[in-house]
Amino acid sequence: MTLPVRLIIGLGNPGPEYEATRHNAGFWLADHLADDLKTSFTLEKAFSAWVAKGRYEGEAVIIAKPATFMNRSGQAAGALLRFYKLVPEQVLVLHDELDLLPGQVKLKRAGGHAGHNGLRDIQSALSSPDFWRLRIGIGHPRTLGLAQQVAAFVLNPPRREELTQIEGVIDRCRAITPALLRGEFAQATNQLHEANRV
């Protein structure tokens, strides 16, 4: 039996100067999911995160945005996992993905961190790579024909056409979240892949 998702962690950097940057795509999706569950974020210092508590079909769902910088995201993930007595496969991490173009998205469980500092820290804090990830494509400066270094690229806002494509992906992720909260991962994956082909 596959366990449904109970803890959703959006990745990003705190502070207004980072709000619109590509690296904060996970935060953007987390904000929408909190709206969809009719809940809002409160800073909970014990978890080093902004936390929104909602319910789906009677079950508690926690959405969190770490209040630390990206490379310390594991602090919040580990604290929340322990407090709510969850296991890694009940965790869904929302993050930006350089290896996918804007407009693309993939759902996967486990695997490496591909150099993503937020994922690396969460993997280390949970002592396991066995959590779910929604990988939101932001593209890579090389594939997008930009001369920027990766570090500068992720800390800049997407261009207008990229933003439109990323927003489309966020809507598709919102559409499959109910399936993830019911543990219907095959259905969620098929739904995402159908939309990828459109």
Automatic annotation (TrEMBL):
Entry EC number(s): 3.1.1.29
Record-marked site positions (Stabilizes the basic form of H active site to accept a proton): D96
One GO location term (cellular component): cytoplasm
Annotated binding of tRNA, by residue: Y18, F69, N71, N117
Site (Discriminates between blocked and unblocked aminoacyl-tRNA): N13
Catalytic reaction(s) noted: an N-acyl-L-alpha-aminoacyl-tRNA + H2O = an N-acyl-L-amino acid + a tRNA + H(+)
Keyword tags: Cytoplasm, Hydrolase, RNA-binding, tRNA-binding
GO biological process: protein quality control for misfolded or incompletely synthesized proteins; rescue of stalled ribosome
Keyword S-adenosyl-L-methionine on entry: no
PROSITE patterns reported in the protein's UniProt record: PEPT_TRNA_HYDROL_1, PEPT_TRNA_HYDROL_2
Locations listed in the record: Cytoplasm
Primary residence: cytoplasm
An example Gene Ontology molecular-function term: peptidyl-tRNA hydrolase activity
Database matches in Pfam families: Pept_tRNA_hydro (PF01195)
Active site: H23 (proton acceptor)
Domain of life: Bacteria
Family: Belongs to the PTH family.
Record's subunit section: Monomer.
Role of this protein: Catalyzes the release of premature peptidyl moieties from peptidyl-tRNA molecules trapped in stalled 50S ribosomal subunits, and thus maintains levels of free tRNAs and 50S ribosomes.
UniProt protein name: Peptidyl-tRNA hydrolase
Organism: Pollutimonas harenae
Lineage summary: Bacteria, Pseudomonadati, Pseudomonadota, Betaproteobacteria, Burkholderiales
Gene: pth
